[in-house]
Write a structure and sequence with these properties.
Layout (H helix, E strand, L loop, with lengths): L5 E9 L2 E9 L4 E6 L6 E9 L5 E9 L5 H16 L6 E6 L5 H14 L1 H16 L3 H7 L3
Length: about 150
């Protein structure tokens, strides 16, 4: 049975620590987990909005965890801008658990995310899900997709 939630996992060495990156594409969000600690860490929601001048702005809301950590908001904004450069428009739910929030660590994380180009995969997964949903119900039942 096919799942409508596509998930991909990657592992990197960042600052000598195993860093797991997991993303799951839901119909209305992308969930991106970046963890060196094996926990969920700080959870931040990033939504792209237009400001009065029509420029892009990213509304970052910390839902759980450290609220006073500028490094976490920095990385969420940078990744959101990276996604937007690939025309990815859905909100992103981040879960970030890093051992430190040093600029060098943040740069390595951003480099790893850019290297695997998850936005192209996420866009392809969203397109495939839309195509499945646009099929007649009879085809879905025959293929056991539901």
């Amino acid at each position: 049975k096919n799942s409508f939630v596509r998930t991909e996992a990657f592992a990197y060495k960042i600052d000598g620590k195993l860093t797991n990156v997991l993303w799951s594409e839901y119909s209305d969000y992308l969930m991106l987990i970046i963890s060196q600690l094996g926990t969920t860490g700080t959870v931040v929601c990033a939504r792209k909005e237009k400001n009065i001048d029509g420029d892009d702005n990213y509304n970052l809301s910390t839902l759980m965890g450290k609220r006073d950590e500028p490094g976490i908001h920095y990385i969420c904004k940078q990744i959101s801008e990276m996604a937007s450069s690939y025309n990815y428009e859905r909100p992103i739910l981040f879960s970030i658990a890093l051992e430190n929030h040093l600029p060098s660590t943040m740069k390595q994380v951003l480099s790893a995310i850019a290297q695997d180009n998850i936005w192209l995969m996420a866009i392809a997964a969203a397109k495939a899900a839309r195509q499945r949903l646009n099929r007649p119900i009879g085809e879905l039942l025959e293929d056991n997709d539901v």
